[in-house]
Amino acid sequence: MDLADLGASQLVGMIERGEITSTELVEACLARIEAKEDAIGAWAHLDPDFARRQAAHCDELHASGAPTGPLHGIPVGIKDIFDTADLPTENGTVLSKGRLPDDDSTAVRLLRAAGAVIMGKTVTTELAVYSPGKTRNPHDPERTPGGSSSGSAAAVAAGMVPLAIGSQTNGSVIRPASFCGVVGFKPTHGRISRAGALALSRTLDHVGVFARTLEDAALISDCLIGHDPADPDTKPAAAPCLSEITRQEPPLEPRFAFVKSPVWDRAEPDAQEAFEELREFLGDQCEDVTLPDHFNGAVDNLRKIMCADLVRYLSGYVARGEDKLSDVLRAMIEEGKSVTAVDFNECVDMRVHLAGWVKSLGEEFDAILTPATCGEAPKGLDATGDPVFCSTWTYLGVPAVTLPLMQGANGMPIGVQLVSARNDDARLLRTARWLVEKVAAEG
Q: Which helix (H) or strand (E) holds 251?
């Protein structure tokens, strides 16, 4: 048994029962990294001795009988846009080379409090936008792992860590999870604090997680969700207990709204065929639903908000060294300068109307079923793939999860994306688990 291949929930139990130590688990993950990192390039910063010291401390706590957290001794990868006080945070740009923050981001602080071992910092695209880093797809090194949370997705897929965190402003959790064949979960906007993480857009920025199972995604999300005064979009509300609800049986067999969306023609033929087969497999439990016409502008609206916000949030980088930024990022910033205040505010306001329609759909359906990506991870490492199948749902701030249930014509993963109404995260994960089990049992 290679501990690096096991899921976080199973590993937590093994550590609790004394069957393994955190040190043994970390050593297994470090061995996997040593074996695969040269080919994959998932890590921006990795200090094996630092990871070992954390694991030894976890083992000392366990041996003393002291209370431990829900992620006690579990290695977690941190996207290199989340501040860490004891590791560099360089945001994927030479303009932040050697940057060592004074404090942890809220997400990292919560992971430490839950007992996690901060394994290291995973590669991000340049400033979490589009220009790729060094990471390659673990299933085919000639293909992109997606972005911007490329290292987090690849590290989990390759067994380097059982869990990792990332961010999504367009498709940066769901897309790489789909391309790398792991579970990616983006909770409702404002569920997880973004304090201490690189900001691109208050309206669009989300924190998300990567795992190998839904149960593991729920486990780490439960440790991260909560109110944080440092992030004004988090709310002082009760946490949804995702782990408990994800394990429950739905009161009724779930029903799915199969939404092709206005960008269906951008899906690859093998992906379209696979989704049609899944639609047929679900039979009466899945119904074709066409989005109303006012959804047609959602992708463009997200683009306007994102580009306009890049002008504001990345102004410091532009001032320090615009010539050090990629052509694609500079072009987006220029595009953002042309967005008027009226257009920006109209795009922001339209989200409420569209999100209300998704909420009403939830009265009849348990989840929207739609592609996570256009298809398999594209060949080539000069881009991270098209995020268009994520854009509408990120724009609305609704929860989304991608499940590694399909393969394309070349044997590469294709994710099935499920979406639900804002704050319906627990129901979404419970529905997703039901779908995974149904496909496994009958597919």
A: none
Residue 1 pLDDT level (bands cut at 50, 70, 90)? confident
pLDDT of residue 180: 98
Say which CATH number the domain at 431 has.
3.90.1300.10
CA separation for the pair 257, 145 (Å, rounded): 28
Number of structural domains found in the chain: 2
Task: State the burial class of residue 270 (Cβ atoms within 10 Å of its Cβ: 0-12, 13-18, 19+).
Answer: middle
From residue 384, give the alpha-carbon distance in Å to each of 129, 330, 374, 387, 415.
Answer: 10, 17, 12, 9, 15
pLDDT, averaged across the chain: 98
- Residues identified as active-site: 79, 148, 172
Instruction: Assess whether the previous peptide bond of 326 is cis (omega < 30° from 0).
Output: no
| pLDDT over 90 percentage in the chain | 98
CB-side neighbour CA atoms (13 Å) of 34 = 8
* Statement to judge: residues 391 and 429 lie in one domain: yes
Query: Is residue 417 pLDDT above 80, yes or no?
Result: yes
Do 72 and 148 sit in the same domain of this protein? yes
| 96/102 Cα distance (integer angstroms) | 14
